[in-house]
Amino acid sequence: MPLPDADTEVRVSSEAAEIFVNNYYQAINSKAKLETFYINSSTRYSIPADISINGSVVPTPAEYSKLLESQGENVLYEIESLDTHIINPSFQYGAPDTVYESEKNEKSGRRMSIVVTTMGKVRFGKGREAPQKMFNETFVLVPNWDAMARNPARGLKRWLIMSQNFRAL
Amino acid sequence: MAPRGKAQSTREARNPLGAKSSSRGGIQKRRGPTRVDTDGDLDMDGPSKRPNRGPTTETSGGRGRPSGRGGPQPSRGAAKVAQIVMKQLGGGSDLASRVSRPNRGRGGQIEGLTWLRVRGLKQSKAASNSDGGLSDLLSFLERKASSLGTGRKRHITIRKSHRAGEFVFVGANKEDAEELLKLNTFTFAGVQLEVVESNGDFEPSSKATESPETAELRAKLQSILSQRYIGENKLLKLDALASDPELVTLGMFENRERALKTFKGLMAICDGLFKTAQEKKDAIHSISLANNSIDNVIQVESVAVSFPQLKNLDMSGNQVSNMDGLQRWKGKFKELETIYMTGNPIEGTDVNYKTTLLEWFPKLQNINGVELRTAQQIAEQEAARLPKPIPQSGPDFRDVNGIGEQFLLDFFIAYDTNREGLISRLYDAGSQFSLAVDAVSVRDPNAPPPLPWAAYIKSSRNLMKINSHHARSQRLFKGQAAINDLWKELPMTKHPNMKEELSKYIMDCHPLPGLADPTGQSQLGVDGLILAVHGEFEEYDQKSGTTGKRSFSRTFVLGPGLSGTAPIRVVSDMLSLRAYSPLPNVFVAPSPAPVDAANQHQAMIAELSKQTGMVPQYSEMCLSQVDWDFGRALVIFNEKKAQLPPEAFASAV
């Protein structure tokens, strides 16, 4: 079990968190589809992502998109704070029987599951006077096994959301 | 043209903006047998009708030349002065140029002109004439150029002219300019002229000083404006301008181009009369542009610039035939409450024009004297358009065997009173802790100034700010000892008692599979919990002696402990800090039931009944007719209100 060293853990988890939040909030702000961010989009995971928004469980990413759209036009999410920890350095859940280059991927931190927390503002409407609210959001990201294959499809995300908890504050 | 006659009658029947009816009468656009000449008529036809003055289209008049046929003709001198003053108003003072700018280059007046530079006027005998010989030079150029051609005669028109020093710049379309160029070395009033193409970036200078004639004309226009201003109604009557005898005498409306300039000039003078926008807004609430043959508001676009806060506008008796003719005012007149469009062809051609007007002008309530929506309805519609945050519900606390609840009840008391004990009980060598500061959060404006961040900033691992790998590693605290060393340095805290002051917290808790098994037995990992808690604490910084409140969010990943020690362990503890701002109380706010279509329709019926006084059956009929578009339902209601039977309304109690 060649686990990633501490440096690799910090580097890979930070990068994963940064790439994820950049893409994810950009997708929300541009009302793009969210499915590909979640384990729901991978056949390797038999369970759907656990999505909890302001205290209500949302069954699918598409339902969350609907909820976001129901907020109306010009709603903008902006991140001010970001942090991440490793939950499991060698995540196994949903992994195929033989993971492609398993040891190398494990050592390079690609099999980690991580917890990501963000804090920021939601702006409702344009302009300086537009009302804004703080929010805090927690994600658990797990490896996308499909992206770890020998010839993965282009554009696959390396990590997928397994658990999400959003609260407007 | 049915609307003509109708326009007159409706105009008489009502008193559009509270104005006294004018003795000048309505539009007298000469048509049919009575038509003698187009000169002298305010002919504000769309630009599409005029640009190509080909050889056969125009034979009588060029650049404002009196034709000598029909009607009272202004003297050439007066017309010239008028032209000059308009030019100055258009390009002189800041106000005037601001007023005229929106039209510049769009109405085919400047764009596409070829500019020529003519030298010789100053040296000529004509220089001693009243206008410095300019008008004589221009008519000389036009006349000579027109007679140059050998075959078919064509009238050459100078569209623009401007004097700068010893040069006169003239603008004409490309074809005409080519003819005019041939006049180079022609003799004018004893002097050989030099006519050359001017460089492309020529801009007419705007330094012209006002001549006595200009001042006189300005005074005349001002006096006309003051006659047309009805102070008690705050109404400026700019209706039927082409039949104003004084304006006609001044030659201000002798052709279309002059008419457009005159209008801009009038707007510029209006602007000049008021020191501040507020003064103007207070003085003029209403403007009538009725009966001016306007078919496209481009022709009077400057009204929107000069009077952006106009409340009432009378456009009746014009020639607007579709919404394109009003397009240039879309998004303008944000305060407009009333508009009259009666007597325009659009009444017959666009059945939906009123609905479109209501969309274009956000405060518009009244069209053609019929109130289509009230100010309150507008406010409600605006409120409905505001973004609606995702509703809040109480805790989503999917606990397992009460572990999460017990952990939280225990954790904050222990963190406030015995951090070291807490670490030894629930943290181990693999536990991670870090904190992240958001120093720019939204905060309660009524709360005291936020506490300083000095005590936390050194260890903040906000990855948005901390970019170096070294700092990111240093600020991740792993294992009991490292966490304990940090917590000893952090300020003392006092969290609200969770049992007594639950509403000061929001907490969610869900099961989380796939955690590392600390015993190493389960390859697939073990199940745990993830908790997100939001709240506030009081802080005492033992180093600086400051106290105050802070807001926090804290995420915990909890897993099963090693057997023999604690039943659970903290895998991850992430603290996010921000300035104090009270949380929404999610415990009292009932989560609104999801609204399905049927409920929504019922709510709309109830609301329409409330706003209109109709009984629910009629509200439902009305709404179903417009496909449940509430705004349109109101419009329909207001239009058909008079025709509804008494039983449509709930009897007054």
UniProtKB/TrEMBL annotation, chain A:
GO terms for biological process: nucleocytoplasmic transport. SUPFAM superfamilies: NTF2-like. It comes from the Eukaryota. InterPro entries: NTF2 (IPR045875), NTF2-like_dom_sf (IPR032710), Nuclear_transport_factor_2_euk (IPR018222). Residues 16-168 form the NTF2 domain. This is NTF2 domain-containing protein.
From TrEMBL, chain B:
GO terms for biological process: poly(A)+ mRNA export from nucleus. Its main location: nucleus. Residues 61-71 have a biased composition (Gly residues). Residues 403-577 form the NTF2 domain. Residues 599-652 form the TAP-C domain. Residues 1-79 are annotated as: Disordered. Keywords: Leucine-rich repeat, mRNA transport, Nucleus, Repeat, Transport. Belongs to the NXF family. Involved in the export of mRNA from the nucleus to the cytoplasm. This is mRNA export factor MEX67. It comes from Trichoderma harzianum CBS 226.95.
